[in-house]
Amino acid sequence: MFKKKSKYNVAVMGATGAVGEEMLKILEERRFPVDRLVLLASARSLGKKYSFHGKQIAVEELKENSFNGIDIVLASAGGSISKKFAPFAVKAGAIVIDNTSAYRMDPNVPLVIPEINPEDIQKHKGIIANPNCSTIIMLVPVYPIHKTNRVKRIFVSTYQSASGAGARAMRELEEQSRDVLAGRPAKKEIFPHQIAFNLFSHNSAIKDEGYNEEELKMVKETQKIFHDTKIKITPTTVRVPVFRAHSESIYLELEKTPDIARIRKILSKAPGVKVVDDREKNYFPMPLEASGQDDVLVGRLRKDLSSSKGLCLFVSGDQLRKGAALNAVQIAEILIQ
After folding, report:
1. pTM of the predicted model, to two decimals?
2. Which of 238, 272, 325, 332 meets the CB 3.0–4.6 Å disulfide criterion with 22?
3. What is the pLDDT of residues 218-251, one digit of tens each?
């Protein structure tokens, strides 16, 4: 049983990564009741300092005994690292909120988006999984619709930013852009193809069915979060030359004919959603405006011209915030309530 306190000892595993750094900002912004903050990373980051509420905190090397006295671990250091170290954290008495793919499909680990299935948090056995960023950004606006008019099928195409591949990928986009504009060849280190002024199929492994890992995550995670294995999802995931915030074009096949005015009203009141849908000004969700925001922007709301029960929408959401760090901190907030 998780012991309730006035303040908690929190460890961030993978503190020097893009998501880890965002976790620190969000913990501070939302005034999470932190007593002691421990920043954990690999040995090469040892001693690097971060400011938290005016104090400088040095990064410590991640080790098996790093979790003594820790209540909550926010983990974002990669799946293999989580697989290795999360059990040590749980054994030491901590609850791990894991932002990697390591435990998402484990039947004994709840997979949680707080706006959708917060009740699943209480089913944890020491580990709670954060869904994939693309899944979160899709489902936060889709779920309020699903509650009033069941979604039977989803077709989704993603426009995923460099931030989804980490800080080094963002730097690669910047450096390639400078090089291409200066007439120099683009150097590829993180992505398999040039990302500047280009787009390509998501850089995860293609499976036998022809779908990549990112696409299969969206399918399996949606079914687990919705507790609905009958819902059908067909994704196409794409990398685009955007620094931060993912966008998605979503088509929903609903149980009943959609009422656009009613759906707009539902979304305007839904937690974690902001409607950006001005047809007159041709003003809809953009990653530029979603960056740094907690809400997922949703717009382009329209009926399918070819089907009476089809609904189209377009969304943009900050991959580092709601797609990762914010979702994890929100889980921690519910955990301590």
Report:
1. 0.95
2. 325
3. 999 999 999 999 999 999 999 999 999 999 999 9
Catalytic choice (202, 227, 246, 312): 246
**What amino acid is encoded at 85 in this protein?**
F
What is the domain extent for residue 293?
135-168+198-319
Residues 6+ apart with CB under 8 A from 133: 164, 246, 319, 323, 324
- 151 and 291 in a single domain? The answer is yes
In this predicted structure, the answer to whether residue 300 has a pLDDT above a threshold of 90 is: yes
Instruction: Find the DSSP H helices in 123-257.
Output: 133-148, 167-181, 213-226
| CATH code at position 281 | 3.30.360.10
- Judge whether 271 lies within some domain: yes
Q: What spatial distance separates the first Cα and last Cα of the chain, rounded to whole Å?
A: 13
- Which residue out of 53, 124, 133, 193 is catalytically annotated? 133
d(CA 91, CA 42): 21
